[in-house]
Amino acid sequence: SAVISQKPSRDICQRGTSLTIQCQVDSQVTMMFWYRQQPGQSLTLIATANQGSEATYESGFVIDKFPISRPNLTFSTLTVSNMSPEDSSIYLCSVGTGPYEQYFGPGTRLTVT
Amino acid sequence: GIQVEQSPPDLILQEGANSTLRCNFSDSVNNLQWFHQNPWGQLINLFYIPSGTKQNGRLSATTVATERYSLLYISSSQTTDSGVYFCAVDHGSSNTGKLIFGQGTTLQVKP
What we know:
The complex is a heterodimer of chains A (113) and B (111).
Chain A: E1 4-7, E2 10-13, E3 19-25, E4 31-37, E5 43-49, E6 56-57, E7 68-72, E8 75-80, E9 89-96, E10 102-104, E11 108-112
Parallel strand pairs in A: 2-11
Antiparallel strand pairs in A: 1-3, 3-8, 4-5, 4-9, 5-6, 7-8, 9-10, 9-11
Chain B: E1 4-7, E2 10-14, E3 19-25, E4 31-37, E5 43-48, E6 52-56, E7 59-64, E8 69-74, E9 83-90, E10 100-101, E11 105-110
Parallel strand pairs in B: 2-11
Antiparallel strand pairs in B: 1-3, 3-8, 4-5, 4-9, 6-7, 7-8, 9-10, 9-11
């Protein structure tokens, strides 16, 4: 398994602003992903964070709204841009450790007012 | 796309009782995992089980891939078992790592 940390753990932000969430893993991993969990809902995949190239976004998610960086095999950031109250969610990063299992970070609980 | 359905949506148990949670999926999968989300939001990996049976303490899981379902058994439930249980699958010809989650079963264990 991998030890995953996220910063911040929670934040309250004003609408129209942006927040960058960091995900740090204690070992090099091939696969990193970002998920969103809206209040009372299940998890939805936002994108795959690719090291050294642009992230791969799922249907309904776009780079302008959720830019992602992955500068190396242990770190990634997700930015939630131009936030609205509908962006209030838990944002989770996950990593795939060989070959198939995935592990999740503790999540970032975002409230947009 | 693939559909992942979990049942029941909600479950209330008395401490010490046993329970079975079900996950049905509409197409073949190459990865199936069960997670427990505790009341603080942390997702805990319970089982990686695309087929067969596994046991870990009071928990066990069985996946019958040919019939497209998986079961999670919780025996002698404890209050710390409370939370949401998710089934998630990776669909496709190869393991992409992209998980599709069911809607979850919310379990409350009363003392």
